[in-house]
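Inputs:
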Amino acid sequence: MTLGLSLGVVVGYLLFALAVGLVAYRVSEATAEDYYLANRSIGTVVLLFTTFATLLSAFTFFGGPNLAFAAGPEWLVVMGTLDGVLFAVLWYAIGYKQWLIGDRHGYVTLGEMLGDRFGSTGLRALVAGVSLLWLFPYVMLQQMGAGEALVGLTGGAVPYWGGAALVTAFMICYVVLAGMRGVAWTDTVQGLFMLSVVWIAAVWVVSAVGGVGAATGAMLDARPDFGSFGGGLYSPGFIVSTAITIAFGVTMFPQINQRFFVARSGETLKRSFVLWPVLVLLLFLPAFMLGAWAVGMPIEVPEGANVLSVVLNEYTPAWFAALVIAGAMAAMMSSSDSMLLSGSSYFTRDVYRPVINADASERREAWIARIGVAAFALAAFVASLFRPGTLIEVGDTAFSGFALLALPVICALYWDRTTRTGMIAGVLVPQVAYLAVVLSAVVAAVPTLPRTVAGGWDVALGLMVLSAVLTVVVSLVTAPTAEGDASRFAVAGD
Amino acid sequence: MSRSRRDLVWIPTFAVLVAFAVPWPLWGVDRVVAGLPVWIWWHVAWLGLCALLFSLFVRSGAWERGMGRRPESEADSGRRSVLGGDRP
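Outputs:
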């Protein structure tokens, strides 16, 4: 009975989200600019929430509370710092600059912008290829999150693969049918929905266990080490390298980076920037504290389940628990949609058209994009069945991969002397090195290379430094190519 | 000119905002205040401070000057639109 109710609520909500996308599709125009960028007409509230919802995925809703449950509430500080503060600063330094440039030259993707500036199709395809590579584990993460969420919600009645398959099917339908305008609309609805519902959930659970003080007291009785800042997993090295790699990585995520081109006006970016720290905190505080408080609650968290689903099932009515999980799954779905959509634009505009088939018709390109999305999502689904790590581990791998792009891009944006060879060296070498580290853990035949050194410092942080050094040094020793044009990135209007 | 020189103050300001969003001075402190560990309150208050200073950054016009653009006259900053905004 309750099982049927839970599943009914989840599937019903996902169908509702799909319906919103279809309505958006009806009002959209059939051009690439509209499909990918909603004709650059996205206003503050929608931009804010679409970035918010895209950013806040299974990594936040499920991975975050799980980690807080296992290792302590310091995760709130790590995520708050990187998302609320560091990302906001980069939002200005990278995002606003890209908006100014994109607005002048009509760019749609990061690769297109860099390729045009340096007169290099190779660089354009390289940036797109690297982005697609790291997009894969992140899409996979959403499917893993959905699978684990339904295991937690139904006590294992719905198997892990069932949840992952459900969300995969919905995300393919969604992207193929709706495009950016549809994604942006549902993101807004879902961002607002999740924000309210997480607070209602927190108030509900906290009042059931006797208030905030009692919840913290019980948490400290069970795990006294949760009360003091730092310790355990949270070494200074872990905090600093996680915050830096994720914040820089997020700016290079195709779906986030493409948001920098969609704003209707500079004002929109300004307002989003100011509201960002508060919005981020409003979501993280209840979500992660629920995870941390759960250690003091008399609950049993089964292997491979999400702690948030279990807590909600214990303290709130079944329909409400299902609604929260559905909301989170829908948010993950829209996350994945944005990723897949941006990924498909990277593929068609930066790889397929310039490298493979320059004469493809619009119609053919649109089909390639949709088929590509379906194939990508299905491959990620298959990989998600192997569960190669926790949600946080898989997410962190993807973020670090993207983070390696950030410093060369910043160089290109602000330093006229950057050359094409400098960019290619700065992007390619650290990527190959990081890929070797990641793959060495998966391929049994080679020894596993360490991911962290000296007490939690991520090697990706060192590779980020390498990417900047290579870009600068190689640029200094090579001459700008004739096809390059630094004035493309000039934005000083007066 | 002096305005844009004064704007340079924003660089260390942002650095401090990022660095101390992590409550380093409370490392190892386990006091509970008003139901939550005290370092969580630090973080909450700090993000509030960030939002406040970010809005000051935008309103002072440093947002535009930082990109080498001239903010529209101080009075109607925020009203100018938009597409491009650059002059020929």
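Remarks. Chain A touches chain B through 51 residues (CB under 8 Å). Residues 160-208 of chain A form the longest helix (49 residues).
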